[in-house]
Amino acid sequence: METVKEKKNDPKKTATIKITGAEAIIHCLLAEGVDLLYGYPGGAIMPVYDELYKFQDKLTHVLTRHEQGATHAAQGYARVTGKVGVAMATSGPGATNLVTGLADAQIDSTPMVCITGQVPRHLLGSDAFQETDIIGISTPVTKWNYQITKASEIAEIMAKAFYIAKSGRPGPVLVDITKNAQFEEFEFSYEPCKGVRSYNPVPKPDKNAIAAAAELINAAKKPYIVWGQGVILGKAEAQLKAFVEKTGIPAAWTILGASALDTDHPLNVGMVGMHGNYGPNVLTNECDLLIAIGMRFDDRVTGSLDTYAKQAKVIHMEIDPAEINKNVKADIAVLGNSKETLELLLPLVQKNTHEAWHDEFKKRYQIEFDEVIKNDIHPTKQGLTMGEVIEEINLASKNKAVIVTDVGQHQMIACRYAKFKQSKSNITSGGLGTMGFALPAAIGAKMGAMEREVVAVIGDGGYQMTIQELGVIFQHQVPVKIVVLNNDHLGMVRQWQELFFDKRYASTVMVNPDFVKIAEGYHIESKRVSERKDLKATVQEMMASDKPYFLEVKVEKEDNVFPMIPSGASVSDIRLK
Amino acid sequence: MEKQWFTISVYSENNVGLLNRISGIFLKRHINIESLNVSKSEIDEVSKFTIVVHTTETWVHNIVGQIEKQIEVIKAFYHTDEETIYQESALFKIASNLLFDERQIQNIIKDNNSQIVTVARDFFVIAKSGRRNEINEMYEQLKPFGIMQFVRSGRISVSKEVMQISTLLNEFQEQ
């Protein structure tokens, strides 16, 4: 930022000093407040790396061990800070390795800017070395993308990239920069983007719709809130709390909405969805009013749409007009930012407690507790459960940790049992279900919030998809806590094989290496727990450490996650066993 | 829900890559584009896509939502055939001798309100604008005489309702 200002403050300098495109990219990043980025160098992005070398006192570049790791680290950083995460890669394979992270950020609305090098303009389309059409490849998985072929475009496009990534419903943007544009010299000046004429990021809430919504809410006997990540992205946590407390409406969350309201809040009734809580799923089909706030009725949330909340009126508060009536028809749609919408709604709704209605949730919680939860977190059988490990992390961290999860059984168990006291504490790959997400995302989360405890909870399958990022943890001494819940299986797929494919365990048994030795190879303090008696003390030791720490817990090999809505079934038909 | 014909109109910036972005939305849903036309619109520097699809209203609603969400798209609409005025254009290339040997051809040209746009030594070209079925009819009439080349354009259409794109653009710019 300073460098840019210095040049701007001195008109003579601005007029005479020309910089290269590569240097301009650094100034753009600094002007956008970026001080940390993740990436991997290569031929077509080398001029930018040369500038990163010169600016390393202002801008930290973290060398991940694979470009996919760079995107997930940038996502973890973005999810924990609310700022734009930045990842950089070279052309060709460097660029294609970003695709999974882009797709993940797109479906989970994560603000991210990816910068890729590209072959020089005169070689475009010639099948040059490490040339790939990353604009074509990334189009379906980016909010926006652009190929810069001359240096004079850099300032405007980079400003636009950051603006688009973070505004409205956030998402990933990819900027591809040909090598000639990185070398070209030009007169640089930077202005942040304030708007794009064809893009209306935040629709204004319609007061009539809000009044109509309030009327429905005040008249409802069994209203029910399901909130999603829109509350967190819209910074509406306080407004949600005030709204829930005034109306007394039971409130449940989607997996990405977790932590927007304290887990222990009396009006927080739990998680919806395939492995969500019993009451929140079943009672979706008994409420008379469903109030959806910043969520998109994903199929993992709704189960069969034909039998989803058909008895209820639906209010859908949402920033993205394309989500309205996409899956579930809204009786009242309120477009806009969740914070603004809830602020306008709050004075119009009446105080209530809905005690009898809450009792329905309590009754069902008791059923779920007796059938499932008790055995998950206070097991009496011999083998360790994933649930009890999460419970120990809760206790040792006093519910204050950021929990980063991968994808599968451990993820569902962690999201079910982790307790949160602070927003932006549950970081997981929700929509895309990207195995390999957690380890690099935890690196980004920790570097984005050094004051917070970050615990990555990962299965033995997903861990090995990005295990090489241990190198980053070691090199940069990133003090994340890594907990691998090892059941020597691809557990979730195995569970489906058990339940729906007559126990034909095709390719779900994992013969695993010695994970402790691998972590030791990276000089990371490591422990393995195989027995219950060692669990508490070891988790406490891990949480007390101020260094990176690896913990492998050998859990029961063939445990299943319940409750479960079988794929395509109704939320009413959720199974407890 | 029953499938029917819809005309999707998209007002957008004229940028490289936008066509790819828009066609991807159809690809993602496995929906075939029946016809596509891209041209300038009534507003300077604003392009207009006219896309014809055969699908359900639910799908077309979702598709238009996804199209409109693209950064460089200003506004997208969908209309049924009854709500639009629409046409296609076709060119027929036919051997020149037939124009003189087969008197019927001249009647076909007249009856179909089409024009001869060029006559060369070996061939002549007929242009016909109209509804798809009118062009098809003319095609069937000419076919027995031998058509050297035939091409038909995508649908172009204007809506009967007012499309306030300029007002929208001004609103966006003020924000």
What does this structure look like?
The complex is a heterodimer of chains A (577) and B (175). Chain A is an alpha/beta fold and 577 residues long. Chain A has 3 domains: 2-186, Rossmann fold; 207-360, 3-Layer(aba) Sandwich (Rossmann fold); 382-555, Rossmann fold. Chain A is built from 25 helices and 20 strands. Chain A has a 6-stranded parallel β-sheet, sandwiched between helices. A 6-stranded parallel β-sheet of chain A has the order 11-10-9-12-13-14. In chain A, strands 16-15-17-18-20-19 form a 6-stranded parallel β-sheet, sandwiched between helices. In chain A, helix 3 (21-31) packs across helix 4. The longest helix of chain A has 23 residues, at 355-377. Chain A starts with a helix and ends in a 23-residue tail after the last strand. Mean pLDDT of chain A is 96; it is low at 1-16. Chain B is α+β, with helices and mostly antiparallel strands and 175 residues long. Chain B has 2 domains: 4-85 and 157-165, Alpha-Beta Plaits; 87-152, Alpha-Beta Plaits (2-Layer Sandwich), CATH 3.30.70. Chain B is 34% helix and 38% strand. Chain B has 6 helices and 9 strands; from the N terminus they run E-H-E-E-H-E-E-H-H-E-E-H-E-E-H. In chain B, a hairpin with a 3-residue loop joins strand 6 and strand 7. The longest helix of chain B is centred in the middle third of the chain and has 13 residues, at 57-69. The mean pLDDT of chain B is 93. The interface between A and B is medium-sized, with 23 and 22 residues.
User: What gyration radius of chain A follows from the Cα positions, in whole Å?
Assistant: 24 Å
Q: Which two chains touch over the largest interface?
A: A-B, 23 and 22 residues
For CATH, the homologous superfamily of the largest domain in chain B is named as ACT domain
The major sheet of chain A is characterized as:
6 strands, parallel
CATH architecture of the largest domain in chain B: 2-Layer Sandwich
Q: For this structure, what is the CATH homologous superfamily of the largest domain in chain A?
A: Thiamin diphosphate (ThDP)-binding fold, Pyr/PP domains
Give the uncertain stretches of chain B in residue-range form. none
User: What is the CATH domain class of the largest domain in chain B?
Assistant: Alpha Beta
The number of helical runs of chain B is 6
Mass-distribution shape of chain A = globular
